């Protein structure tokens, strides 16, 4: 029996983990426990622990550490508090796990992993080797990789980059594709009628799905970026239904959050959603004409739904992107012009992040390599 821990700090990483959690639940050789923290426990961000529990999973431990503010000091303090609380957690529970999964690049995840290092917790990192030059998450991602015992990456290019980062061509790195794409096969998406019954939103209307997060490197420019996005969405709302999902708790995140809330109050054709959950988010993506934003879901999942994506700014700069991703500046005129053009088209290419049965590959690899880490 392999004792597995799963660190989840947000709706984003939980949605990606979901196929793996379901696979581990069915595997008699795996005993897994979920450690919940970050925005999962924040009422401001939808208290998404409810989603975990509604899917039939239980939290082994809940660790609260987020602060309400979005200044650099608030985020630095939240990082420190998260690391402090996890130092207590690992002190009491590090012996409970043979391996612990960490995913992605959030500051909360990096803090939890950093606190594990003195206890020599064996971390398995998903989605390492990627690059997002417009976000400080780029640094957090690499720090998690450097703290990890083995790695599950989403493309061969990221495997090569991770070998360079680790300076170790013998590192245990496995290209398994993007785990989140398995959701698109295993999760039954809602019909348009079911979506209407759940959210009161009619996806028969021409819809644009918008997910914009603040840039955390050039965070002083977020006021300007937000104004340009809002101008574009105001213009587009005369031709489309706009569905906005709320941003992450990053530096200057409240700038976008407050502006989007105001748009939702001013325009009946603009809908603002705190948290869709995995099933509803992908349902909305499936029936939308276009995506606008700077989120990894536009880079990774949209191609499977044959959607074009207007990727704004530098947050995802450096990340491998398919031909469905149109890179634009935060400029309202460019956004409107390209939205009008690409909303009429369907992407016909392949998703470069896809590999068959990623969760099964991860578990098989974990079992085959476990003896090396025990």
From the structure above, extract its key features.
374 residues, alpha/beta, Rossmann fold, 2 domains, 7-stranded parallel beta sheet, 6-stranded parallel beta sheet, 13 strands, 41% helix
Structure characterization notes:
The protein has 374 residues and is α/β, with parallel strands linked by helices. It folds into 2 domains: 194 residues, 3-Layer(aba) Sandwich (Rossmann fold); 151 residues, Glycogen Phosphorylase B (Rossmann fold, 3-Layer(aba) Sandwich). The protein has 14 helices and 13 strands. InterPro entries: UDP-GlcNAc_Epase, UDP_GlcNAc_Epimerase_2_dom, WecB-like.
Strand line-up of the largest beta sheet: 3-2-1-4-5-6-7
Rounded mean pLDDT is: 92
Head-to-tail CA distance between termini: 12 Å
Could you estimate the helical fraction of the residues in percent? 40-55%
Question: What oligomeric state do the depicted chains represent?
Answer: single chain
CATH class of the largest domain: Alpha Beta
The CATH architecture of the largest domain: 3-Layer(aba) Sandwich
Question: Tally of extended strands?
Answer: 13
In DSSP terms (H or I, runs of 4 or more residues), the helix count works out at 14
Q: Globular, elongated, flat, extended or rod-shaped: what is the shape?
A: globular
Pfam families: Epimerase_2
Protein name: UDP-N-acetylglucosamine 2-epimerase
Domain UDP-N-acetylglucosamine 2-epimerase: 22-367
InterPro entries: UDP-GlcNAc_Epase, UDP_GlcNAc_Epimerase_2_dom, WecB-like
């Amino acid at each position: 029996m392999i004792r597995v821990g799963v660190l989840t700090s947000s709706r984003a990483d939980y949605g990606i983990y979901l196929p793996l959690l379901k696979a581990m639940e069915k595997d008699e050789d795996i005993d897994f426990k979920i450690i919940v923290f970050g925005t999962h426990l924040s009422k401001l961000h939808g208290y998404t622990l409810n989603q975990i529990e509604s899917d039939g999973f239980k939290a082994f431990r809940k660790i609260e550490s987020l602060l309400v503010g979005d200044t650099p000091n608030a985020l630095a303090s939240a990082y420190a508090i998260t690391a402090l609380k996890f130092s207590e957690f690992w002190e009491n529970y590090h012996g409970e796990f043979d391996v612990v999964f960490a995913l992605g690049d959030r500051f909360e995840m990096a803090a939890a992993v950093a606190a594990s290092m003195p206890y020599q917790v064996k971390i398995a990192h998903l989605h390492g080797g990627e690059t997002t030059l417009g976000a400080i998450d780029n640094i957090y991602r690499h720090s998690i990789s450097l703290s990890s015992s083995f790695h599950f990456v989403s493309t061969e290019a990221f495997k090569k980059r991770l070998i360079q980062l680790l300076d170790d061509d013998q590192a245990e790195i496995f290209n398994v594709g993007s785990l989140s794409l398995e959701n698109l096969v295993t999760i039954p998406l809602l019909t348009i009628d079911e979506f209407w019954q759940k959210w009161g939103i009619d996806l028969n209307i021409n819809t644009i799905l918008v997910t914009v997060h603040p840039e955390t490197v050039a965070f002083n420019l977020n006021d300007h970026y937000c104004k340009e996005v809002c101008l574009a969405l105001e213009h587009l709302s005369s031709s489309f239904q706009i569905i906005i999902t709320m941003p992450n708790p990053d530096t200057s995140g409240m700038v976008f959050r407050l502006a989007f809330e105001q748009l939702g109050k001013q325009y009946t054709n603009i809908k603002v959603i705190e948290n869709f959950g995995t099933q509803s988010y992908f349902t909305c993506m499936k029936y939308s004409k276009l995506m606008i934003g700077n989120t990894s879901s536009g880079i990774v999942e949209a191609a499977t739904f044959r959607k074009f994506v207007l990727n704004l700014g530098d947050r995802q700069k450096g990340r491998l992107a398919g031909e469905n991703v149109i890179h634009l500046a935060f400029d309202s005129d460019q956004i409107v012009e390209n939205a009008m053009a690409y909303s009429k088209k369907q992407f016909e290419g392949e998703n470069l992040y896809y590999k068959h049965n990623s969760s099964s590959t991860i578990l098989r690899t974990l079992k085959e390599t476990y003896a090396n880490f025990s």
